[in-house]
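so my prof wants the structure for this chain in the tokens format not the other one, which i didnt know existed until like an hour ago. anyway here's the sequence
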Amino acid sequence: MEFWRNLKPIEKVFQPDALPEVYTADAATDDERYYVPFTETVSSRPLWISPSQNKWCDILMAKAAGLVNRHYHPHEVFAYTISGKWGYLEHDWTATKGDFIYETPGEAHTLVAYDHPDPMKVFFIVKGPLVWLDEKGDPDGYFDVHQYIALCKAHYDKVGLGSALIDKLYR
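here's what i got, hopefully its the right format
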């Protein structure tokens, strides 16, 4: 029995200046329209975006072997594996369903999705930019929240979801 059934909800849920929560049903959906192509083989479903903090949450997906090019994170990143199999060429672990990864600030790596019967789907919390690296590991551009927003808006307009859907994710 649900022992809490007789409890009354809190009446003052939000402080006067607080924004409502972001609720996304079926966040790891199989509907590919929601996944923004990030590279030729990997896509991202935006779930929450903070332009002021240069931070976002997403589900990264690859339906087959995939690659996110070499990059460096000046800030920490958190990852939780929903399905599939993935890892970094620079590490000896391989993540599968249920695995959690904390990436320390200052880490450079090459993300790869391995062939697996299930698509790779990973929930990421990304803070700050990704600094793209060349084959020697030297900086070769960057990707931040503002580029992510532009990429998402263009894709959502293209597939008929509308760019305003991205605006609803801002907090």
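also thought this was worth mentioning. DSSP finds two helices and twelve strands in the chain.
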